[in-house]
Design goal:
Blueprint lengths: L1 E8 L5 H17 L3 E17 L2 E12 L2 H13 L3 E9 L8 H78 L1
Antiparallel strand pairs: 1-3, 1-4, 2-3
Length: 179
């Protein structure tokens, strides 16, 4: 039987101490006649919700092979260690040789970064000349639009004091009639 255990270690614990903690848990599994098939450190990642007032945690994946007592020994070690804030163990029917989906995504992003960087560097000069051409083509049209907007604002500003001056005498006449 295969068992997959993912546990989250308190983010205040360093990565080195997380590795040491994982080694201690692996020794517990081996003492219980089990063996570790896969071990992955997923790094410090944000939690979906706060756990024990923490927003991040060190994620570790262990896949064990052996009797249920080996998985039980691992869970007992996890429960006894205060540095582990959450864990989940599931039974697997078959073992996959591929890395976990998270590790696949991580390796793909690392492999694609150099290719993206060189593609971006090659595309940068072409994009700059393209933008410059668009700006030059749009400049006369934009200048006319801006000029028309400025004229409209100036006309509104000039008309506003005249409208206020006309409104004041009417208001004064209304108060005299009421007396």
């Amino acid at each position: 039987m295969y068992y997959e255990t993912i546990f989250i270690v308190n983010p205040d614990v360093s990565q080195e101490n997380t590795e040491q903690l994982t080694d201690v848990l692996i020794q517990r599994v081996e003492k219980a006649a089990g063996r570790i098939v896969k071990r992955e450190y997923w790094g410090s990642r944000p939690l979906a919700y706060q756990i024990a007032k923490r927003k991040r945690g060190h994620y570790v994946l262990l896949v064990t092979d052996g009797e249920p007592k080996a998985a039980a020994a691992l869970e007992e070690g996890i429960r006894l260690d205060e540095r582990i804030i959450r864990y989940l163990t599931t039974r697997l029917n078959e073992l996959s040789d591929e890395p976990s989906p998270l590790m696949r995504r991580k390796t793909q992003s690392e492999e694609s970064k150099p290719a993206e960087d060189t593609a971006a560097e090659a595309a940068a000069p072409e994009a700059a000349t393209e933008v410059e051409a668009k700006v030059e083509a749009a400049a006369p049209e934009a200048a006319v639009e801006v000029e028309a907007k400025v004229e409209a604002v100036v006309e509104e500003a000039e008309a506003e004091p005249k409208a206020k001056a006309k409104a004041k005498p009417k208001a004064a006449e209304g108060t005299k009639a009421a007396d």
